[in-house]
Design a protein that fits this description.
The complex is a heterodimer of chains A (77) and B (478).
Chain A (H helix, E strand, L loop, with lengths): L1 E7 L4 E4 L8 E2 L2 E5 L2 E8 L4 E11 L3 E6 L1 E8 L1
Parallel strand pairs in A: 1-7
Antiparallel strand pairs in A: 1-4, 2-3, 2-5, 5-6, 6-8
Chain B lengths: L1 H14 L21 H7 L7 E7 L3 H16 L1 E2 L12 E5 H13 L4 H9 L3 H9 L2 H7 L6 H14 L4 H7 L4 E8 L5 E4 L1 H5 L10 H8 L9 E4 L11 H7 L7 H14 L5 E6 L9 H8 L7 H6 L5 E8 L17 H41 L3 H12 L1 E7 L6 H8 L9 H17 L3 H7 L3 E2 L6 H7 L4
Parallel strand pairs in B: 1-3, 1-8, 3-4, 8-9
Antiparallel strand pairs in B: 2-10, 4-5, 4-7, 6-7
Helix pairs in contact in B: 1-7, 3-4, 3-5, 3-19, 4-11, 6-8, 8-11, 12-13, 16-17, 19-21
Classes of the chains: A mainly beta (77), B alpha/beta (478).
Chain lengths: 77, 478
């Protein structure tokens, strides 16, 4: 497994890999994932993506801490 | 004679020249209140939110239906302090073929529905009914046209005896647990095809409009004997947004995670519309235990439910995994003859042995995941300096109960072989069904994990459970 801690922006519901019907938790949060490439996003109340970050080809047994980057203007989810 | 000829001609004329359409495109209305884990979970209160209860039910015709039915019934008699039963707390049911008949009926009607399932389906002559429906002049004429296929015999029977036109919309409206996953197999890709909205999204299709009988029949479409259930791929479309995980999966190097990349490639082929039709056969061709989708939900976070993250975050603290395996392993006369087996024998052996032996590997994979790998992941997290994640994973690992309902667990060889000899058929004898019902209850109760689980939940059985020895006597040697 890989362990990705998303620490910024704090206090936001985090969505992984476009699964918008279920939050992965409130940031800062550590997400347990299989090895590989993954996308992390937060949504505005209007259901638009306002922060995003991606990790690419992370191998098993890796821990990373990331901050999401603002998406301006927010994009429809 | 004249009347029969007229009816034959009329049937042929009315049947038209088009193959049946089994699934409908997604619409804006269809996107409201889909049948998904989050909507089910929100609508159906969970009295044990920190406990994940999964039941999987294998294929095996009526043998599998009866075994799964027995397990659901027994779980229905396991009472909890809340007044509910353990059956009420099942979160996910994932099934194949004969197991899907019981799983779908359980999802619609709960454990209280098991007597009706037994009366209306399990104890009936299914083969006789299918033959009667097909081998009459009208039936034969209809089957000669593209609009009626052999699988329609099973669909019609399931609809007529059990589901009466029920769709996944009825399941969504029932607002009850469990979340149902019926599994067929993609005949071309050779991969499991779980009937979930997440899968149907790839075809831009609305699961709610799918008849339960069609999905169950797809799950049970035994190769050659029955025809596949063919779904129309309406992708690409504007009604469904491309699922985000596909691109992340495609961007994963093969060496890093070949499974995820492979899943993404198949999903991409569906969603881009490269595959215009999906031909579905018995789920046993790729996963006869129904564990592939629960395994996927427990090992990645690409679709809801995000069980892996719920375990990692500590939201799920206990896992109960009940695997119902009705695998048969009859003694074969082929082993005793030097003569070259016939073409039919070779065909049946190819299908049966592939399905039956495949269950052994997947059973071990799930057991290993739940019993060993969660603990290893916990150690890994601890070594990486993530004590809370490690503690959460350890909690789940230490509180996992894996329950096997499997004829292989019968200690007495002669009794075990009698149950393994029960054929894969839609018609079983009364004694065979009596035996399976008793043995399902006995195997569940005798599993080393069951009684401790019940005790830890503060629960009790409403009635004493039969023992394995007693169940052997219910279906004695002839």
């Amino acid at each position: 497994m890989i362990y990705i801690t998303v620490n910024q922006p704090a206090g936001r519901e985090l969505y992984v890999n476009g699964v918008y019907d279920e939050s992965a938790g409130t940031t800062p949060v550590t997400v347990v994932l299989p090895a590989g490439t993954h996308k992390f996003e937060t949504l505005t109340p209007g259901h638009a993506v306002d922060f995003r970050q991606r990790v690419t080809n992370v191998p098993n047994g890796t821990k990373e801490t990331i901050a999401l980057t603002a998406v301006s203007p927010p994009e429809p989810a | 004679m004249m009347r029969i000829c007229v009816m034959l001609l009329l049937t042929a004329a009315l049947a038209g020249c088009s193959y049946p359409t089994r699934n409908q495109p997604m619409t804006a209305a269809g996107e409201q209140h889909p049948y998904t884990w989050p909507t089910m979970n929100a609508a159906a209160p969970d009295d044990m939110p920190d406990t994940l209860v999964v039941v999987t039910a294998s294929g095996g015709g009526t043998r599998a239906t009866a075994l799964a039915m027995s397990v659901f019934d027994t779980l229905g008699h396991a009472k909890l302090p809340s007044g509910k039963s353990l059956a009420d707390e099942v979160d996910v049911v994932s099934s194949v073929s004969g197991g899907s008949v019981a799983a779908a009926y359980f999802a619609l009607h709960g454990a209280a529905g098991m007597p009706a399932l037994e009366h209306d389906f399990v104890r009936t002559d299914g083969i006789g009914a299918l033959l009667a429906a097909g081998l009459n002049p009208i039936g034969l004429a209809a089957l000669a046209t593209p609009s009626k296929e052999r699988i329609d015999l099973l669909i019609d029977r399931l609809d007529g005896t059990l589901f009466h036109g029920a769709t996944f919309a009825d399941l969504a409206a029932a607002q009850r647990r469990p979340y149902l996953i019926l599994n067929a197999g993609d005949m071309v890709e050779g991969v499991p095809f779980p009937f979930t909205q997440y899968t149907l999204d790839l075809l831009c299709s609305d699961l709610k409009q799918m008849k339960m009988s069609t999905a169950v029949a797809a799950s049970a479409a035994f190769p050659v004997a029955l025809s596949p259930v063919t779904l129309t791929n309406y992708s690409p479309c504007t009604a469904v947004k491309r699922p985000g995980w596909i691109d992340e999966g495609l961007a994963t190097q093969w060496q890093i995670n070949p499974t995820r990349l492979d899943q993404a490639r198949v999903a991409d082929a569906y969603f881009t519309g490269r595959k215009k039709y999906i031909h579905l056969l018995d789920g046993g061709i790729s996963d006869n235990l129904g564990v592939a989708e629960p395994f996927r939900l427990l090992t990645n976070n690409d679709v809801s439910p995000l069980f892996l993250q719920q375990i990692g975050s500590g939201r799920i603290k206990r896992i109960v995994f009940v695997m119902v395996n009705a695998r048969s392993f009859p003694v074969s006369a082929l082993d005793q003859q030097k003569a070259t087996p016939s073409e039919l024998s070779m065909l049946l052996a190819t299908i049966d042995s592939t399905i039956d032996r495949a269950t052994l590997g997947t059973s071990e994979r799930v057991r290993k995941l739940l019993v060993e790998e969660l603990g290893l992941d916990a150690k890994e997290a601890a070594d990486l300096g993530l004590p809370q994640v490690a503690a959460n994973l350890n909690a789940a690992a230490d509180n996992t109960t894996f329950i096997d309902v499997d004829f292989d667990a019968i200690p007495l060889a002669s009794c075990r072989q009698r149950f393994h000899d029960i054929p894969t058929s839609w018609t079983l004898s009364g004694p065979q069904i009596d035996g399976i019902e008793a043995m399902g209850e006995a195997l569940l109760g005798a599993d080393p994990g069951f009684q401790p689980l019940l005790q830890s939940l503060g629960g009790h059985m409403e009635r004493p459970l039969v023992s394995i020895d007693q169940a052997c006597q219910v279906y004695p040697a002839m």
